Amino acid sequence: MEALGLLFEGFAHAFTPLNLLFVMIGCLLGTAVGVLPGLGSSMAVALLLPMTFALDPTAAFIMFAGVYFGGLFGDSTMAILMNTPGQASAIASTFEGHKMARAGRAPQALATAAIGAFIGGMVSCILVVFLAPALADFSANFGPAEFFALALFAFVATSSVVADSVLKGLASLVLGLGIATVGIDSVSGTERFSFGVPQLFDGISLVTVTVAVLALGEVFHIASRIRRDPAARAMRPAGRPFLSRAEFREALPAWLRGTGIGLPFGVVPVGGADVPTFIAYGTERSLDRRRKDPQFGKGAIRGLAAPEAAGNATTGTAMGALLALGLPVSATAAIMLAAFQQYGLQPGPLLFERAPELVWGLLASFFLAMIVLLILNLPFAPLWAKLLLIPRPYLYGGIAVFCGLGVYATSSSTFDLFMLLTIGLLGFVMRRYKVPLAPLLIGMVLGPLAETSLRDALLSSGGDYGVFVAGPIPVVIYVLLAIALAISIAGRIRARARQDV
Amino acid sequence: MNPNSTHAPARTAGGEGHDGHPGARGAAGSWWHGRSGLVVPLILAGFSTYLLVGILTMRVPEGTDPPGPAFFPALIAIAGYVISVLLAVSYLRSPEPAHPATYAEHEDVSDEERRAAEEAARVPYRTFSDWRCVAWAAGGFFAFAALLTVLGWILAAALLFWCVARGMGSTRPLMDLTVALTVSSIVYLAFAVALGLNLPSGILGGGF
């Protein structure tokens, strides 16, 4: 119970009026940036990083906590309302969340997301407080073979289990993996697929691809049908502002399952919170298929609740991993690591001994940020939903402008804008022919990890492929993968048999 | 991922797909009806070729241990070719005609809206997508990207906004222009002036 005592000291530290104010400001700023289409929590932290250097370390990190979680909240708000997630971890929320919004249940969708994020975040913060040392031991066992198995698992799960057509899912995945290989190879320094174009040396940024495929592609897709079908135009923000008791009961198991899925991923560097959100979404979807009245595709509350909870659970444990191991598992965590180093602090096991008041103050401020955000977002949810009352032409005009802003702001290059347009058209074609978008983004995010771990493993084993099944962890992952595939194939065969009858 | 995907008879054979809307589209009789999706394997094959050319022309530094930088992309390119062939075969054997969005039974809409959607779905068009609208949106973005540094953020972004609004069927050009300039100016003030992002001021430069 030593941890509890330390945490209470942390609360005492964080509970000064000034620090509370910083949490509030951080949450508001983070939400405001996260709400912008295409800008997510990593963008929020990056934009506001220079501002916090004017503060003392504790206040700065407390504000960071607010910005970080605020960015996540704002991001999923926009993902739900406009189908424009700012970063990969909010993508899974768009699938059912945006459908809920289009069916006139936007306020309920936002409340589901807010509560899910709260539950996931809270549980993970509690876990971090007690389990930080154990987490360190677990992930110390991970080598290239383990990472490769994890990446492969994520690829197969998203492209075949989640997608409707396996071929289309794989096509999307291949495009994503391919896009990720453009640029200078990190292992050998070889220039790849840039054909001498200097703007391609650093590769194609994930921000550009995400904004292009999800936001700009959507603008083109809407434009292609808006004058022809009224159904595509209709989006009715209406109805009750809050969840009914039945909806709450419906969402509760999904929140808890999502949290359970998200927790372990925080310590595993597989690109942040996006993998667990997709796995949580896929789990809910396959559970849903067994129900008498499947809800997925119509705006299923569980399809939103689970990824939201999973995303924040991962974010919470990821912060634990950053503090306890010095291991940044996402873009945002990497930026926070840079901030620690600015103050001359090195995250890792020693940080708990050297700067306990900072660590525990920061952990305490996570709890505060969660509560502040829940208080801020539940009443604001209907207000954000009012954004949908903007006339269509202006709404999509505005989204297009923000797409341009988000990409130009991160790169300051016109080249990236043309890239955005090209990939946006690709996103349009994919939507038109019902090719799923998620595998492309997953391939893009995890492709580099898969490649480096594949090559590292083969390099260290001298070309012996047996290295991939040498340890117990990869074997377990491959067995799980085989089981998931078998279930999915069996489900497909059953569905086809039913269709033929 | 599309609201219709669960309802569309994706695997029905031959011309059955458009039975609900006889003569739904002008191109219904042509061989291409339901097969325009062949563009997807085409894009994939094109991208695989791009990777292949890149692999063949790649200059790998001497002394790089295998597997080198071409190993992983080569796997992707092979997978890309295989999948594009399989996808093309699947489109040739079972076309997937697109369906205009109508309301499914469970959706809570008035009869009037439902009827309007179904009537709209029966109007014949030569192509499923309204290419004129897409051209407005995509062209607007192209102009924005090309002119941004010359015109500056405020004018270029307003142009983009105006073009997209027009593509989305807005019929009030002057009103659109006012809204467009307001939006782009607010963004400029909030992000360039207040947050210090680097947005070009262009020919309006010096004013801020």
Automatic annotation (TrEMBL), chain A:
The residue ranges of the DUF112 domain are: 20-441
Keywords in alphabetical order: Membrane, Transmembrane, Transmembrane helix
- Which InterPro entries does this entry report, sorted A to Z? DUF112_TM
Going by the entry's taxonomy, the superkingdom of the source organism is recorded as: Bacteria
User: Per the UniProt record, which residue ranges are transmembrane?
Assistant: 20-39, 59-81, 109-135, 147-163, 170-188, 200-223, 321-340, 360-381, 393-409, 415-430, 437-454, 466-490
Q: Does the keyword Oxidoreductase apply?
A: no
Q: What is this protein called?
A: DUF112 domain-containing protein
> What organism does the UniProt record list as the source?
Sediminivirga luteola
UniProtKB/TrEMBL annotation, chain B:
Annotated transmembrane regions: 38-58, 70-92, 134-165, 177-199
Q: InterPro entries, from UniProt? A: DUF1468
Looking at the record's lineage, which domain of life comes first? Bacteria
**Where in this protein does the record put region Disordered?**
1-27
A Pfam family the protein falls into: TctB
**What keywords appear on the UniProt entry?**
Membrane, Transmembrane, Transmembrane helix
Domain DUF1468: start-end pairs: 39-200
- Note whether Membrane occurs among the keywords: yes
Reply yes or no: does the keyword Manganese apply: no
> Know the name of this protein?
DUF1468 domain-containing protein
